[in-house]
Amino acid sequence: MQCVAKKKGKKSLTAHTLDGEDYRKGALERLDNAGHLLRQERLGDAIYLAGRAVEGMLRAVVWLNDVDVREGRKSLETGHQLPELLLSVADLGLLRADGDRDKELRDGVQVIARRWFNNMRFASSRLVHTLWWSRGIVTDKWTFKQAAHAYYEACARVIKRCEGLCRTRS
Predict the structure, then answer these.
(1) What global pTM score does this model have?
(2) Tell me: the pLDDT tens digits for 111-148?
């Protein structure tokens, strides 16, 4: 059974009819919610939502800049893989190989992708802490709280850069 809601103009809305602005606005809302959760020290939830915000914003960049995606000739299905979404952005020619901002974007997405996974939505904060500990992200000198705040800031930087890329529409 597929859930269908109504959008302005009586157009039905399904998961396959989100447009670039829907992805962009949703990403900004997810990042804002992640910030609230972080301040409440609900770290696992904040980490998941901040990563989801990055995914949404990368999808927005692709949707807004790729006419084939907008017209339904290409799909945005990447299995929630942030590096694949970043590759789609790069394939559109939106990133400069020699640009510091774009190197920071590429590096930021890679860092986020090593810390985030879509099924994190099912994981407890304790499990996320344990995973980050096993990867050396959390240590005796770098707490889970510190790592979560740094991760959130990395997500915010990526989203800010993607906002600029959303304005370059083809």
Answers:
(1) 0.87
(2) 999 999 989 999 999 999 999 999 999 999 999 999 99
Question: Are 13 and 7 contacting, i.e. CB atoms less than 8 angstroms apart?
Answer: yes
- Region of 169 (left: φ > 0; alpha: ψ -120 to 50; beta: rest) is beta
Query: Would you state the structure tokens that stand for residue 42, as one six-digit string?
Result: 């609900």
Domains, the chain, in order of start with CATH, read 24-166 (1.20.120.330)
Place of tokens 């740094």: 150
pLDDT tens-digit map of 23-77 = 999 999 999 999 999 999 999 999 999 999 999 999 999 999 999 888 888 887 7
